[in-house]
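W.,

You were right to be curious about this one. When I first looked at the sequence I had no strong expectations either way, so I just let the prediction run and decided to look at it fresh. Below is the sequence, 128 residues in total, followed by the output.
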Amino acid sequence: MTDEIATIKSISATRAKAFNNGDSRGIAIYFTDEAFLMAPGGPTKRGRQEIAAYYQSIFDEYHTELESGYEDVKVDGNLAYGRGFAKVKLTGKKDGKVSISTAKYLNILEKQPDGTWLTTHDICNGNE
């Protein structure tokens, strides 16, 4: 079980790195084709394409810095959840304006037939 938890934590770190690199597809690849992204301030995004487009809209407007990670991961068979924290710094590409926010999130992941873990549900809400 500890190997599965380490793998899931690694996926979270890889997604954070993709966010910091402005790589929307590098984030979306860790979601299932039918995944739900429930980010604050807008409608639910469904599937990799909508999820990638959501992140790309952020990267088009801002330089991004993310600190995040799971505080708790639980695996039960082919399902898992990760509960985590995030601190996001956005710097406007046009005006240089900086905003910093903190949030908490919950991911539900499902083990795929090939043994990889993908996110099926990602919900996040701000602390401010």
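Here's what jumped out at me. The chain has one domain: 2-126. And, maybe more interesting for your project: The mean pLDDT is 97.

Coffee later to discuss?

I.
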